[in-house]
TrEMBL record:
UniProt-listed Pfam families: Sortase
Gene3D superfamilies cross-referenced by the UniProt entry: Sortase
Hydrolase found in the keyword field: yes
Keyword Hydrolase: yes
Keywords: Hydrolase
Signal peptide as annotated in the record: none
InterPro entries reported for this sequence: Sortase (IPR005754), Sortase_dom-sf (IPR023365), Sortase_E (IPR042003)
GO molecular function: hydrolase activity
Active site per database record: H139 (proton donor/acceptor), C205 (acyl-thioester intermediate)
Stated name of the protein: Sortase family protein
């Protein structure tokens, strides 16, 4: 449940499709969900809209238990009270993978409207270069097909990812895993053992054109260095 809810609660890139009135911030972010559920009673009253600050606080509240290795249960009724729609496309930065000649911009979000323009950053995960694990998704054989050759990557290969106009962070590939479609969200969103580490996960459908699996490449700033790269990092 956590893996599905945290991205939904992220403030960007999703534009919350609530209608006024706006709820007052609360010391207990969970209270906002209760207000929203109550507002959607039998008479279908207008939902109570939480402020951006409250949504951010709620996202943090739900994400914190993940670092401790357990989920924080939230009922399906509560989850349904948080409604989102894709927001305007926003470029976050660039991803470069020398091994496969990739150098493209990536956007915020993993909705199809984002992925049809290139890779997308999974909302709620760390930004590349920050503490935690940044997750990027992309297509292999449709639209721009940025991740077509993910299967060519080997341990130690470089993946450089920037945020805005900042200096790119260099990650080193750790491993590649093929995961069943039903299990990939939990796999790609699994918290790192060391919350202070800086990691990157990129994934796409597998095999090409048949989304019954996902190919998942995991990398870290402390990944293995190839001998050919020593002295030229």
């Amino acid at each position: 449940m956590l893996a599905l809810l945290v991205p939904v609660c992220a403030v960007a890139p999703w534009a919350i499709s609530w209608q006024a009135p706006v709820a007052n911030p609360s010391a207990d972010p969970s209270a906002v969900i209760k207000q929203a559920v109550a507002a959607q009673g039998p008479k279908k009253r207008v939902p109570v809209a939480p402020s951006a600050a409250v949504v951010a606080a709620l996202s943090k509240e739900l994400a914190d238990p993940a670092g401790q290795g357990y989920d924080k249960p939230v009922s399906s009724k509560q989850a349904a009270a948080v409604r989102t729609t894709p927001g305007r496309y926003q470029t976050v930065g660039r991803i470069q993978i020398p091994r496969i000649g990739l150098d493209v911009a990536y956007g915020e979000g993993v909705h199809e409207s984002v992925l049809e323009r290139g890779p997308g950053h999974w909302p709620g995960t760390a930004l590349p270069g920050g503490a935690g694990t940044a997750v990027l998704s992309g297509h292999r054989n449709t639209h721009t097909a940025p991740f077509k050759e993910l299967d060519m990557l080997r341990p130690g290969d470089k993946i450089r990812v920037s945020v805005g106009k900042g200096k790119p962070t260099t990650f080193r590939v750790l491993d590649t895993t093929i995961v069943p479609e039903a299990k990939y969200p939990a796999f790609v969103l699994k918290p790192a053992k060391d919350p202070a580490s800086r990691n990157l996960t990129v994934f796409a459908c597998h095999p090409e054109g048949h989304p019954i699996f996902r190919i998942v490449v995991r990398a870290s700033t402390t990944g293995p260095v190839k001998k050919s790269d020593e002295g030229g990092r």
